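Folds abound. A case:
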Amino acid sequence: MGSHDVVVVGAGLAGLVATAELLDAGRRVLLLDAEPAASLGGQAWWSFGGLFLVGTPEQRRLGVRDSPELALADWFGSAAFADDGSDRWGRAWAEAFVHFAAGEMRAWLHARGVRWFPLVQWAERGGYLADGHGNSVPRFHITWGTGPAVLEPFVRTLLDAHADGRVEVRTRHRVTGLVTTDGRVTGVRGDVLAPDPAPRGAPSTRRAVRPFEVAAPAVVVATGGIGADHELVRAAWPASAGRLPDRMLQGVPDHVDGSGIAAARDAGAHVVHADRMWHYPEGVADPAPVWSRHGVRILPGPSALWLDADGHRLPPPLFPGFDSLGALRHVTGRGDDHSWFVLDRTVLGAELALSGSDQNPDLTGRSVPALAQRVLPGAVGPVEEFARRSPDFVSAGTPAGLAAAMNALTGADRIDGDRLARTIEARDAQVATGLGKDLQVVATAQARRYVVDRLVRVAPPHRMLDPAHGPLHAVRLQVLTRKTLGGVATDLEGRALRPDGEVLPGLWAVGEAAGFGGGGVHGHRALEGTFLGGCLFTGRTAGRALAATL
């Protein structure tokens, strides 16, 4: 079967973790990736490095009371798994992952040198009833060093093994199909691509130099999702959720095209829940793009007013940071290609953050002095600079002036200045009471009970029309493609399953290509911090199980 025990297809986080586990077990691995060596680590390198962890010392120091039972209840309330058996494996992976996140995960990573920013963030707050979507408590642990630091221990294992001759890495090898023999996957085939000096994340040529084929007893597909193929994303988007717009931004590099999922399907694997995706409605165009249609997600605090394209507030609980997918479905259900955040200078400075390692140099560079700037008045440096350079940010001294700037940006007179003024005035009147009935005002006040939100994430209550907090700002938000929640169905060892539910011998799937576990560990909605975690868990699980079977 050749000189390799396993061929791993894809050098992103899940593929690197699976490779590391196989190498630790003494297996011979061939790692293939279509991109240049500069892109080792895939899209995880660009991430904020947030991890969903449960019952940690970081939480306890902040007075957060969490438990596996509460986390699993939140997960199931968000996932809304079907009862017809179609989510059998996704549900099983969810239970296993939550117990991992509450058990071995932190110690396993800590032993490999991973550390976390001590202020645990509260992502996806939900805002529904107790058994609905959302995190009941803060669980978003930001890795000290962001995405690159999550990758570090596994890249180090790979490079050490490569230096020792225990692993072969072939970049610019694009797998286009899996080889099957008598119903078993026995290798891969594809094209060797022309050399390309493209920097990390930038589009690289797909010009083929020659074909290749490799045989091995086992193949691991770790190629990610479909987020860069917008036509495929639109075709898979459920009709019940409206229509994704013709113009979308992209939160993943161009190579995230679903090719590995398609190759697995063609080889006989069962691909499930293709209509489940996790795209973001809070995207803004990157003024210094790396890949095509490059967008960045805003990570908002709860104070900004979220308006649709006509200037109406989104219905509760679709407030910033509460239900991303619900807000996206509201936008697509209306047939719009954008929505708006309206805020003032104080809220901009305190509450707007940008997702990604490149947008957070203080955390990525592990700079304590730079990090200390976050507690000072005004926006964090990169956010302020991004707002200055981005065409999606406009400002004015009055609601009428802001409405005019918003309309000028979109080229359509959809925002009425008088109505915008009334909307802001009504919100300000609620804040001025010190109590109020407006659900967003109430939720924002509640958020400040959590010490981290009060210190660095949520602005003190104030009137937006108070000149001391001006000027007013508006941010045009566009749809940002990102995560694929469905994928190759797998059992709890990561073995690919056929449509009849039986194992497809020789094939394994991990990471986003496997729906982060079982073909859909998140069900219909995710809790954030679970994407990197899903890559870690599926890569670790499959790598260990596969090593034991060889």
